[in-house]
Every structure is written in C-alpha cells, then in structure tokens.
Amino acid sequence: MSKSKSSIIVAVTLIVTILLSFVAVIGIGSNKMGSASNIKLGLDLAGGVSITYEATEKNPSQKDMTDTVYKLQKRAETYSTEAEVYQEGSNRITIEIPGVTDADAVLEELGKPGSLEFFVASTTSGQAADVVLEGSAVKNAEAKITQDETTGAKDYVVELTLTSEGAETFGEVTEANQGKQIMIAYDNDVICSPYVKQAIYDGKPVITGMENFDAAEELASYIRIGGLSLKLEKIRSNVVGAKLGDEALKTSLIAGAIGLALVIIFMCVMFRIPGIVSSIALILYTVLELVVLNAFNITLTLPGIAGIILSIGMAVDANVIIFVRIREEISSGKSVKTAIKTGFSKALSAIVDGNVTTLIAALVLGLKGSGSVKGFAQTLAIGIVISMFTALVVTRLLINAFYVLGAKSEKLYGKQKERATIDFLGKKMVYFIISGALIISGFIGMGVYAAKGDNVLNYSLEFMGGDTTQITFKENISDDKITSELIPIFEGVTGDANVQKQRIEDSNDVIIKTRELTEDERAKLNDALIEKYNIQSSDIQSESISSTVSGEMKRDAIVSVVIAAVCMLIYIWFRFKDIRFASSSVLALLHDVLVVLAFYAIARVSVGNTFIACMLTIVGYSINATIVVFDRVRENMSILRNKGKLEEIANISITQTLTRSVYTSLTTFVMVLLLWILGVSSIREFAAPLMVGIVCGCYSSVCLAATIWYMMKKYIGKTAK
Hints:
Blueprint: H1 3-25, E1 48-55, H2 62-76, E2 84-88, E3 92-98, H3 103-110, E4 116-121, E5 128-134, E6 138-147, E7 154-162, H4 164-176, E8 182-186, E9 189-192, E10 206-210, H5 213-226, E11 232-240, H6 246-271, H7 273-295, H8 302-331, H9 336-368, H10 372-404, H11 428-451, H12 461-464, E12 466-472, H13 479-494, E13 500-503, E14 509-515, H14 519-533, E15 540-545, H15 551-576, H16 579-603, H17 609-639, H18 646-656, H19 658-678, H20 681-715
Antiparallel strand pairs: 1-3, 1-11, 2-3, 4-5, 4-8, 6-7, 7-10, 8-9, 12-14, 12-15, 13-14
Helix pairs in contact: 1-7, 1-10, 6-7, 6-8, 6-19, 7-8, 7-10, 8-9, 8-10, 8-17, 8-19, 9-10, 9-15, 9-17, 11-16, 13-14, 15-16, 15-17, 16-17, 16-20, 17-18, 17-20, 18-20, 19-20
C-alpha cells in the first residue's frame, strides 16, 4: 500500500465519520432527516397512543379475554415490536403503541375490532348459507404484490395464514365447493367474495384481484382485527407520555456519551496507535448504529439500549482481541508489519465465532420472540453486523494505513508482557464451591420468600399485573414534579422502584402504573395524594390491569431462548469439532443466568421487561467471552498436542486471553455503571443486575468454562493426558 493510498484511506474514513456524525447528531434539511432525535422511541422512553376497548359481551370468559389480548398483541406489533396490550378490569383491553401521536389515524388503520365469519354462497345471487369458518381460525392476513410470470402484470393479493384446525376445515370446504364463492363477512357486512379455484389444504389461501395495494392492505387489516375471540368497541383513546419519563432517556444518553468517551480514552492509553484507530472505528460504529436505527424505523426502548450496550462491548472486544494478538506477535520477535498481518489473521476465528454465535441467538430471538425480546434482538443484530464491519474492515484498513504513513515503531504498538502461566484449573474445586454457593443461595432466598407467602421473585406489574391510578390535577403538573414529587409518593407506598408514569396530552391527567395495591396501601396512597395536591377523592380513579407480558409471550420468550441455546450449541459443536466445547459453553452460560437470578431473588430487584433484556444481554455476553477462551484452547491444542497436558494447555490459554477478558469486561462494566450512577430508579434496577452479569460472565469465562471442558475431556470420552 502506497503512502498516497494510505492518506486517502485515512482522509476518507475521517470525512465519512464526520459526515455521518453530523447526520446522526444534527440531521439534514429542515426536518433534520437522519438525526438521532428522529429515532422512534418506545412507550418507556417517549410515549405514544393508548386505545382502550371494551367487550360487547357482558361477562366474557377469562379464556376469551386472554386469547384476545394475545392476538391483539400480534396485531399491534405490526406498528411496533414494542407495542403493549393488557387487560384492564374484567372486560376491557388497552393497546399502547409507541412513537405515534395521532390516535385517530391508528384507529382508522387498525379498524374496529368486530366479528369475522366465512360463508359459502348457496346461490349465484350471493345469498349466504351456513358459517364454515370463524375469524378465530385466522392467525394472520398480509397484503402482498405478485407478478404474473407470463404477462409480467402485477396482482395485489391478500395472503391468509390459518390455524392448523382452520386449515383442515378450510381444505374440506374448498374441496367440496370448487367454483363457488366464499364470502367473508365483517360485522355481518360482506367485505370480499372470492371464488374457490381449487382445494386448499396448506392453510395459506390467497385472495386475488385487489385493485391496488391500499385495497389489499385494507382488506388484510379487517381480516386481522376481525379474527378475535371477542367483539370489541372503543371506549377511549389518548396520546400518552413516556412511562419512564424524559429523565430516563436524557440520563441514558448522557451515560452512553460519557461511557463511550471513557472507553476511547482507555483504548488510546492502553494500546497507543491501535487505540487511536479503534477510537475512530468506535465513533464510526456508534453513528452507523444511530443512522441504521433511523433508516429502518426501529423502535428503541430500554431493552434496545441493552442490546446497543452489549454490541458496543463486543465492538471493543473485537479490537482488544486484535491488538493483544499484534502485541504477542511483536513480543515473539516479528516485525510490526508482519505482526499486524498475523494478528488480524489469528484473531479472525475468535471474532467471527463469537459474533456469529451471538448473531444466531439474536436472529432466533427476533423471529420467535415478542415485544421487548424482539426489540432487543433487532438492535443487537444490527450492532453485531456493524461492529464486525468496523473491527474487521475499518480497523484493518486504518491500522495498515497508519503504518505506511510512518507509525512503524514497536513502541507505538507495545509488547505483550511475559506472564507466568496461572494454574487456574488447580483451583477448580474452589470455583465449583463458590459458584454452587451463589446459585444455591438464590434458591434458598426464593424458598424463604415462598415460605413467608411472598412471590419467589419480586415480579413487577409487567409480569403480575397491578393497578393503574389516574389522577386529575387542578392544573397541569410538570414532568420535573412528576419525577421529583409524584413518583416518590408511589414508590414510598409500594416499596417498589418499578413505577411507570404516563401523561395524557391536552389534559391535566397523569396515569401511574404500579404493582397491585392492598386496601391499606390504596387508602394510604389516596390520603397522601389528597394532602399533597389538594384534590378530591373523585379525582383519583383506579383500576386493576393484567400483565403486559402474557403467558403466551412468556412461552414465546422461553421457547426462543431454548432454541437459540440449541442453535448456538450446534454451531459451536460444528466449529470446534467437539461437543464438549459446546456443552461447556452452554453450562457456563447457564451458570451466569442462575447467578444473576440469585441476585434478583436476594436483592428483590423488580422482575419485569428489563429482566428479560438483562438475561438476554448476559446470554450474549457470556457466550462471546467463552468462545474467545475456547478459540485459544483450540489453537494451542494444535500447537502443543505432543508437548503438553490438556490441563496445561487450558491454563496457558486462559492466561493468554486474560488481558482481553479483563479489558472487555471493564469497558462494558463502566458503560453500565454510568447508567446506574446517572439513571433514574427504574434504570438503576436494570443496570444493577446487568453489572452482576458482566462480572459473572468474566468470572465464568476465565475460571469455569475451560475447567468444565477439561473435566468433560477427562471423564467423558477420551481420557485427558
């Protein structure tokens, strides 16, 4: 590479980084297109629209209410993956959609939730016969554009997805009624009458002949919302403010900015020229993340911020792995030029395997998960792809360019200090005792609380449901007063930091959501509000609400995590050619999850949506850290196969990767620590267990993962030397 070409690479990278930073921070044009301020935020950070429906049936069964809540959740997720749907009282359902400010527009697009029925026309005049299929048999309806293979003409269609029972019934109906019309009626009005061309048993019928895409989308919307167990009518709609308040977003942004600055300073001090290169790459990574979130209109919530924090940690990790490798090569006597080339080459497998493993988990969680799980997966997947690009492409180009431009001295890169091999495996019984004690303490804590009649974990209103309190103030109350005065009143009564607030725009009303209150707590709360704000008891309205994380959503989350773990196990098995590497990784991951669960149980930190985000973050962080250690074990096994025992190889590998483990954990920990220091109470409840998980992830990757692998090699399959 010539000096002129190197100068161009550095200049172009700096210009692109500056331009993208301008776009991300300021934006383009009068509407500030591309600015981070235009990123769609979730209900917890920015608010949105709240629509409440009531069942027309007087006493709907709980089964029908639960089924309707889950189906409406899936419908609402077409607007945002972070939409929330929950039951209010015995016969009402509230839908909350973030990032929307026009309730009427949502109502028009969502449609009135009525009944949907499929009839077979008994005569050519279209007179309806008996009902052959109920709307509840429809899982989804989607507008699509197809193209005729012969003429190339476009056709606007609606593709239905039926339940397994619905598919079987529909197959029998279409088999018996080929050539006839099947009428689809919404609230007894026929909205479509397609002809049956052939028997359809695959549960994927397609309605053709729509005049345009808007017509297809309108029909699909009616079918989607009509396929409910109950008929609903709207009773109110409001534009509501952020659940966590503006302060939560502001402090999170400040913490992120300070954290990124500290990480950049740390990298520059510890790695010199490579540190400067990584700083440019990290800034580019950050602005690219913001631009992509904006471009793809992804809703950002607190769990999404967790995904970004994890991906920043992984971006730092990739650079640390590369730079430590370069130092090792320089220490072995190689020239700086050769060390750079060899360092990138040797670091590649660890970076790719660690990131791909986590990416697999993110993709599975995105496809199978719901709500906050899906939002977390989206931001994590985007972050992983961008971090791999900046680490493997941008960092490589820049560091080679800096070398050509004159940064050739070993002093500018540093040498890896000789470190005596630490006998980690010799202390394996100590690790097992510590880990066992930590995990068992969690189960003991759960048992103690269960014996006292409490929940084994401190479930928040997202998991257990709770109460909503709507207060009508005499005059508009500021956000600062809500945060500094009103929220502390509720926290003082409930003893719970997981309190959510929502302001109803164009009114003096504020809604506060808490865990379920006892009669004494309710009375105490009302007295405190009346005394503090000089309002009447009639100005305080309360209602019980169901959990926003339904049983089906919990099931989706558990199933998606299990599938993700299996997929990661298979990938590691394939890459390392030994299932003991894979099973050791999963066991280390399980250990970290159980230790953090013990922290939740003993510290009584609220278990809500942030709990899911925290656990998913730990899963991604833990598996990535373990992969780095195992990659070095694999490499050393091929080098030292006939020269050392497996125990020695494991100890050497852990020692060699110790710098990476400590540096990566430290930089990620600092990012989360700043969230804990600067954040509001609900943010701190998210940050505290995450810090425990980061420390635990470092501990398990250094002390447990290779130890478990060695024990398996010794006692399962071939005997260790």
